[in-house]
Write a structure and sequence with these properties.
The complex is a heterodimer. Chain A is mainly β. Chain A contains no helices and eleven strands. Chain A is 0% helix and 59% strand. In chain A, strands 2, 4, 5, 9, 10 and 11 form a six-stranded mixed β-sheet that branches. A five-stranded antiparallel β-sheet of chain A has the order 1-3-8-7-6, with no helix packed on it. In chain A, a hairpin with a 2-residue loop joins strand 9 and strand 10. By secondary structure, chain B is an all-beta fold. Chain B is globular, with a radius of gyration of 13 Å.
């Protein structure tokens, strides 16, 4: 079974709005990563945050990590229609194995 | 650099048959991991190979197996297919010690 739970399961917003997705996990981690998947295709790595980091930015993405609460959030600012996809958090306990969350389906309408 | 490639992209099989899926990693990547994605169970880790050795295995029955060749290309095999094996099978490669994985487009398997 999956380790992570993501919230919300689905999110619908207008272009230009911000989108926030949350991820909770169960065990200790080395790092947490976020991936995007378009229409059942392969996953694309977005950002990695290490267990000793609290916040990280990459372009329009902002990720936070709270290891005391075992949770992370992904914020996409100024969303575009091209951001429409499913977003997954993945914890990395080691050994080249990613443990994925349930995913959030984001729909950005023009 | 070319990305991770997977063949075939789509496959239809019947129950009881076996199937072999292929994955070519990014050049220089020696670690190859396989994942199964289904609507019910989501993304689940199958196994990981490095230098032709399986280093890590997920919680799947023995019908699921894999191997890696000296050029780092990997294959996974599913024997005695069941309806529940219908899924998107994703392959990912990474450099040794790198925590980020690079995914291929997947092979969509339908078992009838």
């Amino acid at each position: 079974s999956q380790q992570g739970e993501e919230d919300p399961q689905a999110l619908s917003i207008q272009e230009g709005e911000n989108a926030t997705m949350n991820c909770s996990y169960k065990t200790s981690i080395n790092n947490l990563q976020w991936y995007r998947q378009n229409s059942g295709r392969g996953l694309v790595h977005l950002i990695l945050i290490r267990s000793n980091e609290r916040e990280k930015h990459s372009g329009r993405l902002r990720v936070t990590l709270d290891t005391s609460k075992k949770s992370s959030s992904l914020l996409i600012t100024a969303s575009r229609a091209a951001d429409t996809a499913s977003y997954f958090c993945a914890t990395y306990p080691g050994f080249q194995k990613l443990v994925f969350g349930t995913g959030t389906r984001l729909l950005v309408s023009p | 650099k070319a990305g991770v490639t997977q063949t075939p992209r789509y496959l239809i099989k019947t129950r009881g048959q076996q199937v072999t899926l292929s994955c070519s990693p990014i050049s220089g990547h020696r670690s190859v991991s396989w994942y199964q994605q289904t609507p019910g169970q989501g993304l689940q880790f199958l196994f990981e190979y490095f230098s032709e050795t399986q280093r890590n295995k997920g919680n799947f029955p023995g019908r699921f197996s894999g191997r890696q060749f000296s050029n780092s290309r990997s294959e996974m095999n599913v024997s005695t297919l069941e309806l529940g094996d219908s899924a998107l099978y994703l392959c990912a490669s990474s450099l040794e010690g790198e925590e980020t994985q690079y995914f291929g487009p997947g092979t969509r398997l339908l078992v009838l």
